[in-house]
């Protein structure tokens, strides 16, 4: 791993951990599946929504995790069904080192609800999605030519202090965020 990527990875992890997110770096798809299995077990997740992105299709988590007692729900399911899931697994289009933020572009077959409705969000992100800052994300999106209808930015578990200025976790989204950085 070159020094620039290592520095970005370290900065991303530090920034995300500062807002109570969790980061694990793995070297292979098999290690990513093991990390997911541990996170799901520790979180007591039995109903898991999984997005239909290329990264997750390649991992084939239901097959990789074997006989775990997990009910897998496709990310294309109705939002009411996704809201009953214990965990949601996505990838991300970008991981922003300067802020520890994940960036999700809207697209066919991808549902923002998988990352926003279940109380536990696991994002498996290829290390080549790591960028320095939001300016880089916007430049790459503009260079791609076709603007997405939505760009969602997620930095850590959902938090708000809009009720009597008391910080509350998980009111408007997941209570926990785990990012698995997958070496290419």
3D structure, described in words:
- The protein has 184 residues and is of the alpha/beta class.
- It has one domain (3-182): Rossmann fold (3-Layer(aba) Sandwich), CATH 3.40.50.
- Helices cover 32% and strands 27% of the residues.
- It has 7 helices and 12 strands.
- A 6-stranded parallel β-sheet has the order 1-12-7-4-2-3, sandwiched between helices. The protein has a 4-stranded mixed β-sheet with strand order 8-5-6-9. A two-stranded antiparallel ribbon has the order 10-11.
- Strand 10 and strand 11 form a beta hairpin.
- The termini are close together.
- The mean pLDDT is 86.
Brief rundown of the structure:
It is built from seven helices and twelve strands. With 184 residues, the chain is α/β, with parallel strands linked by helices.
Note the run of SSEs as H and E.
HEHEHHEHEEEHEEHEEEE
Estimated helix fraction: 25-40%
CATH second-level architecture = 3-Layer(aba) Sandwich
The fraction of residues assigned to DSSP E strands is 25-35%
Question: What is the spatial order of strands in the main beta sheet?
Answer: 1-12-7-4-2-3
The name CATH uses for the topology is Rossmann fold
Helix/strand structural class: alpha/beta
Low-confidence stretches: none
Assembly of the depicted chains: single chain
Straight-line N-to-C gap: 10 Å
**What is the CATH C-level name?**
Alpha Beta
How many individual β-strands? Answer: 12
The major sheet is characterized as:
6 strands, parallel
Number of helices: 7
State the CATH superfamily name: NagB/RpiA/CoA transferase-like
**Gyration radius over CA:** 16 Å
Q: What is the number of independent domains?
A: 1
Sum up the overall morphology in one term: globular
What value does the average pLDDT take? 86
